[in-house]
Design brief:
By secondary structure, this protein is α/β, with parallel strands linked by helices. The chain has 11 helices and 8 strands. It binds 9-methylguanine (9MG).
């Protein structure tokens, strides 16, 4: 069976008649910009900057004004070596920001979480999408995503944030990441998640060395056979620091170059800190037409 057929497996039909309206936007063929809103004390680039709800909402409004198509709100830092917050901490960080921001901006909100209870509370507060770095592998998560009936991004990670950068190994990183994502897509379909609601992400920096990240970036088009939109997060990541010798605050040019490469290899959603600058990249690409 091919990976594309795995995505087509029969599913229970417990959901309503039509997919979430956001799925039409995600599959519309125009590359989208997803602004990052970390409401954590310890994320690698902006940890602690938006850890009060007011500051977070203000930053979310800025991302929307800069032209974000989507805003991804997360209350867990997944930087290498980090430990997850408790469920109560994560709920307290994320839910008030989703509830307040949804009243301020017309941009759809995504919740970056692996916990079913956070997914449920965030969607009840107004989030329209789930972004899960653990690809719905936490017990109960895949069933919750099917029940909530919203788009969901499944990301690849080798091991956990605490241990992922301790000697990651692959025989063939592209084939292994793709096979993992195909398995997770099939698991989601079996649980009743609609095909139109699924996205995948190779998880740059999540259990990958510099050569692994570079190989994945140059082979992103290999994920196209999965038949669902691809999202990537490369913005300001250490792979760009390793390639350029730049500190986190100096990685905008590298981030924009990575965004350009990703879109040219078929990526549909760019998860970024610098929305306005990324929009400029897409405007130039758009003027030139399809690659
Ligand atoms: C939450 N988060 C941090 N990095 C990420 C990435 O590369 N992709 C996705 N989907 N989420 C991420």
């Amino acid at each position: 069976m091919t990976q594309a057929t795995l995505v087509e497996a029969p599913v229970p039909s417990s959901n309503g008649p039509s997919p979430h309206p956001l799925s039409t936007v995600l599959r519309g063929g125009r590359p989208l910009v997803c602004g990052i809103l970390n409401v954590t004390p310890d994320s690698f680039s902006d940890g602690g900057l938006f850890d009060s709800p007011d500051r977070a909402v203000e930053h979310g409004c800025r991302l929307a004004a800069e032209g974000a198509d989507l805003i991804d709100i997360g209350g867990e830092s997944t930087r290498p070596g980090s430990r997850p917050p408790t469920s109560e901490e994560e709920l307290a960080r994320v839910v008030p920001v989703v509830a307040a921001l949804v009243r301020e901006v017309g941009v759809p909100l995504s919740v970056d979480t692996s916990r079913p209870e956070v997914m449920r509370a965030a969607v009840a507060a107004g989030a329209s999408m789930i972004n899960d770095v653990r690809a719905l592998q936490v017990p109960g998560a895949v069933e919750e995503a099917a029940r909530l009936d919203v788009p969901v991004c499944l990301m690849h990670m080798q091991r956990s944030p605490e241990t992922m950068q301790a000697d990651p190994r692959y025989d063939d990183v592209v084939l292994e990441v793709r096979a993992f994502l195909a398995d997770r897509l099939a698991a989601c379909r079996r649980a009743g998640v609609r095909r139109e609601h699924l996205l995948v992400d190779p998880g740059f920096g999540f259990g990958k060395t510099l050569p692994h990240n570079v190989e994945l970036l140059s082979s992103l088009d290999a994920l196209g056979v999965l038949g669902v939109p691809v999202m990537v997060g490369l913005s300001r990541k250490s792979v760009l620091g390793q390639l350029t010798g730049r500190t986190v605050g100096e990685r905008l040019p590298g981030s924009l170059a990575a965004a350009l490469v990703a879109v040219q290899r078929g990526v549909s959603v760019l998860r970024v800190h610098d929305v306005a600058a990324t929009r400029d990249v897409l405007a130039v690409l758009d003027a030139v037409g399809p690659v």
